Amino acid sequence: MKKAKKNPYTLIVFLLLSQLPGLCQDKPFVTYPDNISTYLKRIQKGDQKYKYSKNKNHYDWQNEARTALIELIGLKAMSIKLKGHEPSVKLGKKEEVGGKFSRTLCQIETEPGINVPFYLLVPSNTNKKTPLIICPHGHDTEGLHSYSGSYLNDDHRKKITARKGNIAEQAALRGMIAIAPATRGLANELLVPDPKGRHGSRPCRAQFMHCIISGRTPTAERVWDMQKIIDWAWNHPLVDQRKIVMTGNSGGGVLTAYAAAIDNRISVAVPSCSFTSVTSSEGFIFHCDCCAVPGIRDWGDWTELGALIAPRSLLIVHGVHDGLHNRKDVENTASKIRNIYHGLGSLNRMKMEWGNSGHQFYPEIMWPFIERSLR
Description:
The structure is a single chain. This protein is 41% helix and 18% strand. The protein contains 15 helices and nine strands. It has a nine-stranded mixed beta sheet with strand order 1-2-3-5-4-6-7-8-9, sandwiched between helices. The model is unreliable at 1-6 and 10-24 (pLDDT under 50).
């Protein structure tokens, strides 16, 4: 049989095509006019006073950087002004779900007049200490209902289950106690109105504007709420205080990162579709206005948030088709954090993985890491 001739042009085309993914990855996430690009790079560099250095004792650095972060976001100011406030919790009617777990709609008054609703999910027939997972949501006005599996109607159920968003319900079915709280400024129950549309008819931006003129940020308010929920859950007779997990997608992932960086009681952090640098290499700001912290680049970046979590367990999850984030910047940040964990001898506690879809949870990646970490 006559041997087929190799076509040199075919080989050239193949080699060029094989380089396309790399070429696409090198394409700028956004572009700015040259003068604006130069301006952004200059002002966004910041002082980075708490940039992580392996030459400094890790725990000394953490104490200094965490104290400064608490003050920067306005959490210290909140704690001073709210000193003496005793959060009260009201428990609703317990609902049994399929003989697998109970679900109770509760609320906690985290500061005067602010009642944060949350679902408490407890596995049935449990009489031993159990891991707790707290699941704050992002820009989903029905978020606590979505995460807890307490769907408002059939369309809501189909929408959430299609993107695997019932993360607290999944946790309860896996034998964990789960809390799905409303995220302040993002849930219908806790929206800040925007009369006259002065803030773009966006309640989350209205929340941000009201916060910054009051010496706080939405991030501080949200971390405050999560800490008050942990305070309450800490004394629940079935909660294993050594095994507290936090996870959320998008804005819930941002909250997870900040809460875990600030509160050492969180032993496992799984921020989904959220963990990246403050800005892209071109100067694009990745996160929503309501996640902004004025002056953050004078403090550091998300690498430093990861360093504050280290050496506790941290899983960074993103979707390859998530247009809100840039793979190059995500992996650059994750690489820096990975080096920090490696230096601490805890590389097995940090992981970064890509899901094969968009801006959503990836339970098939998350649960094995969470369960391994809790062991």
